[in-house]
């Protein structure tokens, strides 16, 4: 088996919903990879150009709640403003929360390739340090 790359993400088979996994050397990088996995679970963002920059402040919470909060915000913005992040930068806000910066595009600028997620499921949610950095597993309701 080949060693895992330092950071990345993927979709994995799941019965009725979509399951994503992400990993990175640190918590913030893992959240950013999870956002990329969420977006790529239902779009092909290749060739899309960012048209705006957005920020989101995830308030202090457990690591799992921070991850869910950021992913829920992506879904909320998709539903309410028709925007998708093309790139994500996540930093620790120094107070137990996260500061997320997105470069976004309109949903009409990307090709839809799958079912659009409606929510983040708490079932089988996993997020934490794993000896090789940080990793997460999240099921998305579609």
Write the layout of secondary structure elements.
Blueprint: E1 8-12, E2 18-24, H1 27-40, E3 43-44, E4 52-58, H2 63-81, E5 83-92, E6 98-106, E7 111-112, E8 119-129, E9 134-141
Antiparallel strand pairs: 1-2, 2-9, 3-7, 4-6, 5-6, 8-9
Describe what you observe in this structure.
It is a single chain. With 142 residues, the chain is an alpha+beta fold. The chain has one domain (13-141): Archease, Possible Chaperone, Chain: A, domain 1. It is built from 2 helices and 9 strands. The protein has helices spanning 27-40, 63-81, and strands spanning 8-12, 18-24, 43-44, 52-58, 83-92, 98-106, 111-112, 119-129, 134-141. A 4-stranded antiparallel sheet has the order 1-2-9-8, covered by helices on one side. A 3-stranded antiparallel sheet has the order 4-6-5. Strand 8 and strand 9 (134-141) form a beta hairpin. The longest helix has 19 residues, at 63-81. The N and C termini lie far apart (32 Å). The mean pLDDT is 91.
């Amino acid at each position: 088996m080949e060693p895992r790359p330092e950071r990345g993400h993927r979709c994995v088979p799941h019965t009725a919903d979509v399951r994503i996994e992400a990993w990175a050397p640190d918590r913030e990088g893992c959240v950013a990879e999870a956002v990329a996995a969420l977006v790529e679970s239902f779009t092909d963002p290749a060739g899309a150009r960012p048209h705006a920059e957005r920020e989101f402040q995830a308030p202090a919470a457990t690591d799992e709640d921070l991850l869910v909060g950021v992913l829920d915000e992506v879904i909320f913005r998709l539903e309410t403003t028709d925007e998708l992040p093309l790139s994500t930068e996540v930093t620790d806000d120094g107070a137990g929360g996260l500061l997320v910066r997105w470069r976004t595009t309109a949903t009409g600028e990307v090709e839809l390739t799958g079912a659009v997620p409606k929510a983040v499921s708490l079932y089988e949610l996993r997020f934490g340090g794993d000896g090789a950095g940080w990793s997460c597993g999240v099921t998305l309701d579609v």
